[in-house]
Amino acid sequence: MNLSTLFRSSAPLLPPPRSTSTSSSRTVATENFSIEGRNLNFSITTRQGNYVPILRDCSLRIPSGQFWMLLGPNGCGKSTLLKILAGLLSPTNGTAYVKGSKSYVFQNPDHQVVMPTVEADVAFGLGKFNLTVDEVRSRVSNALDAVGMSNYLQRSVQTLSGGQKQRVAIAGALAETCKVLLLDELTTFLDENDQVGVIKAVRTCLDSSEEVTALWVTHRLEELEYADGAVYMENGEVVMQGDAARILEFIRTRQSAYIKQINS
Ligand SMILES: Nc1ncnc2c1ncn2[C@@H]1O[C@H](COP(=O)(O)OP(=O)(O)OP(=O)(O)O)[C@@H](O)[C@H]1O
Ligand SMILES: [Mg+2]
């Protein structure tokens, strides 16, 4: 038996998602899970007419109010899965469900901020809610507080570091009372201080509100220490999901087996 078969045959840490009653093809019944994907497949057809599967039968469930991470090697399909959950891509088949309003935050901090000042940027998405000026101020202030950026209210966004821009983007989502944050490799372009600042900001948000759930895509194993749970993918498939410490152990075992295999 090769290693891959061995790991795939391990019992999943979470039971498979329950069957559902659906009122629409994108709805999956769920009680304590804010994010759920069932048998998600995604494929593309190249210009040459070749069929390329990118996601294969991916199922995952993220409990409400928790901070989970999505890990896996380059090109295994993490961003594609996250975009499907965000509704930015439609799966070829399978169902995706996110409970409540959601926000997808991109990898590049410079793609996040659109307004000249921090205050204006966080308030940007609130136009659609018909709020009074005081309500807008209060939401902006609370959201900036949640990500540790309240002292930056009047700052020009151009003067912020990458991590501060990411935190402002997260504050924008919180100001809109988004309940699910879908965060794609926010720390890729950041230096170490900024990385820690962003991840701690998300952790603090979740600790102070049971209503917010976050799924964070990352390559960095050290970030798992902030997570409640994790999903590990390889080659378009969800290989394992569950407790963060056990996923970390699983990935480390997998990496050392891979290194041994190469050395031998
Ligand atoms: N529109 C597309 N056309 C062709 N191939 C695509 C397209 N979108 C994604 N892919 C391929 O699908 C696979 C999964 O891509 P995806 O970006 O989801 O991976 P990832 O795990 O997020 O990778 P990374 O860690 O590098 O961000 C990759 O092989 C990628 O090249
Ligand atoms: Mg990606």
Explain this structure to me?
- Helix content is 33%, strand content 24%.
- It has helices at residues 3-8, 78-86, 118-123, 133-146, 162-175, 192-208, 244-263; strands spanning 33-45, 51-63, 67-71, 93-98, 102-105, 180-184, 213-217, 229-234, 237-243.
- The strands form 2 sheets. The protein has a 6-stranded mixed beta sheet, sandwiched between helices. It has a 3-stranded antiparallel beta sheet with strand order 2-1-4, with helices on one face.
- It is globular and about 60 Å long.
- The site of magnesium ion has 3 residues, from helix 2.
- Residues 35-260 form the ABC transporter domain.
- Residues 1-12 have a biased composition (Low complexity).
- Pfam families: ABC_tran.
Helix-strand blueprint:
Elements: H1 3-8, E1 33-45, E2 51-63, E3 67-71, H2 78-86, E4 93-98, E5 102-105, H3 118-123, H4 133-146, H5 162-175, E6 180-184, H6 192-208, E7 213-217, E8 229-234, E9 237-243, H7 244-263
Parallel strand pairs: 3-7, 3-8, 5-6, 6-7
Antiparallel strand pairs: 1-2, 1-4, 8-9
Helix pairs in contact: 4-5, 5-6
This protein binds adenosine-5'-triphosphate (ATP) and magnesium ion.
